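General statements about sequence and structure are easier to judge against a single worked case. When preparing material for the folding task, we compiled for one chain both its residues and its backbone structure tokens. The amino acid sequence and the backbone structure tokens for this protein are reproduced below:
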Amino acid sequence: MTPPAPGTRPARRGRPPAFDRAEALTAATRLFWERGYEATSVADLTAAMGIRPGSLYAAFGDKRALFEEVVREYGRSPAGAFLGAALAEEPTARATFARMLRDAAAVYADPGHPAGCLVISAATNVSAQDAEVQTHLRDLRNANLQVFEARLHAAQRDGELPPEADPPALARYFAAVIQGMSQQARDGATAAELARTAELALRAWPG
């Protein structure tokens, strides 16, 4: 075999260099969050993640599988986990929903990441072949709604809410406010503006 010429590097052989999976996933999350599922192509993803298409498919599966992993990781991140934290940590239902609304104002307008909520906005418009993506995110939002309703029913049983209160309607109201705050953040609303919306929404609390 002829040795390499002086000053040149031998060609690499074997497996390609590994990449940082966590960093690649973070880059994919930001792109899906900014552009949404439909508007983000595989070429966009590989460019942002710094990998080749083959590496994406080998490490994550296809675009949909990557997106589903992004959504799972987002749900564990501070930006995606604040609703669950409030539900788990606050002693009363009113304190729970007050914290969720106030945290939504801060998180959705945080300049350190894309505005709004990925689960709310990433699949608002998708093609027919990707309808399962839209359904998946809708199911996640509806699961949150069911948790809201269960917390409010418990508050009513415990006497925190009056008998005439309507837990299902109240749950939908707070879910609608939170989803609206996400869109307002994407439209440029500041944390202070969203915080005022949160305080106004809390005036709907029965009693």
